[in-house]
Inverse folding.
């Protein structure tokens, strides 16, 4: 039975335009919108675009998911992402819930220990980074921020007086506070002063607005040009917002930080699979090694369940340092 109270897309629009309309109604991030649309298009094209999704269902969805797992050999997370996009199409756009009926072939998910850097290795990597990318990496490690949480920081999220960093709308839509590393306070203040000058230049040229979430630009018409709402790490160039068409200064591209971390790791001669998220893993692990209560670490990390935080106890150095290899006692 169809839900009469849910949002209905405009039936006169093309299917993918309906999908975008519903995604934007529910305030999905633009990156999520792109990802979901890509998966839905792949799902439709998998059957040669012969059928409309309304004429397909459980059998076709399972076939597509099986194809991803067995032929494309995608990871469990990638397959789950595709499933979420297709379920969204049927549940939110076509109003045909099918997820409870699907018996898809899951790609096997093996839980591996998180890759963690030692404190010495963190120092080596940071020593080989400079400028804005260094500041960003220091925030990832010093505050346990996720990669995109750092990139999306706004000026008002930095509380220099109380030494706190506010993470807004993090994973799962949750807000939290985390530690503000004292060692980068002066450098970050200098950086904020510099982007303040950049913002003044944008305003003088007739620009200076920034994207605001959850329709705040309608509720507070002048907020988009306030410095407090500007990104801490803004792009070097103005760009056109793909949704509104406005010319704005967005945050930096995430690929820049990724590349900078990779280069620094290679220069440090560290042969581990290190990425931006490794700093967050190292933050949690080192706190636990230093005796910080796991519940405090859970709060700083923004984990809903302490079991998620417990995964870092498996890579703590003190857990294995006291163990002697049987080879050494022969």
């Amino acid at each position: 039975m169809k839900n009469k109270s849910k949002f209905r897309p405009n039936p006169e629009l093309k299917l993918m335009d309906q999908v975008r309309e519903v995604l934007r109604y529910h305030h999905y991030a633009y990156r999520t919108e792109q990802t979901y649309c890509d998966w839905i298009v792949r799902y439709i094209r998998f059957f040669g675009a012969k059928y409309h999704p309304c004429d397909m269902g459980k059998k076709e969805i399972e076939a597509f998911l099986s194809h991803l797992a067995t032929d494309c050999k995608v990871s469990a997370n990638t397959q789950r992402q595709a499933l979420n996009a297709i379920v969204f199409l049927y549940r939110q756009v076509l109003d045909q819930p099918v997820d409870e009926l699907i018996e898809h072939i899951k790609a096997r998910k093996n839980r591996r220990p998180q890759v963690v850097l030692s404190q010495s290795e963190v120092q080596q990597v940071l020593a080989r980074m400079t400028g804005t990318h260094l500041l960003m990496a220091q925030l990832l490690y010093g505050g346990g921020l996720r990669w995109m949480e750092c990139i999306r920081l706004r000026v008002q999220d930095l509380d220099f007086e109380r030494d706190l960093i506010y993470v807004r709308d993090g994973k799962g839509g949750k807000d939290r506070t985390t530690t503000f590393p004292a060692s980068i306070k002066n450098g970050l203040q200098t950086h904020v002063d510099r982007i303040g000058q950049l913002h003044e230049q944008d305003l003088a040229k007739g620009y200076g607005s920034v994207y605001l979430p959850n329709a705040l630009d309608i509720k507070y018409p002048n907020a988009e040009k306030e410095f407090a709402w500007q990104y801490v790490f803004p792009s070097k160039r103005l760009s056109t917002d793909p949704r509104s068409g406005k010319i704005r200064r967005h945050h930096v591209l995430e690929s820049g930080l990724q590349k900078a971390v990779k280069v620094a790791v290679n220069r440090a001669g560290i042969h581990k699979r290190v990425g931006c998220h490794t700093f967050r893993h190292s933050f949690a692990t080192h706190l636990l090694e230093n005796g910080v209560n796991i519940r405090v670490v859970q709060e700083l990390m923004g984990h809903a369940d302490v079991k998620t935080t417990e995964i870092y106890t498996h890579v703590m150095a003190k857990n294995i340092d006291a163990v002697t290899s049987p080879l050494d006692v022969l």
Q: What stands out?
A: The chain has a mean pLDDT of 88. The chain has two domains: 15-93, 119-314. The radius of gyration is 23 Å. Residues 115 and 278 are 6 Å apart (CA to CA).
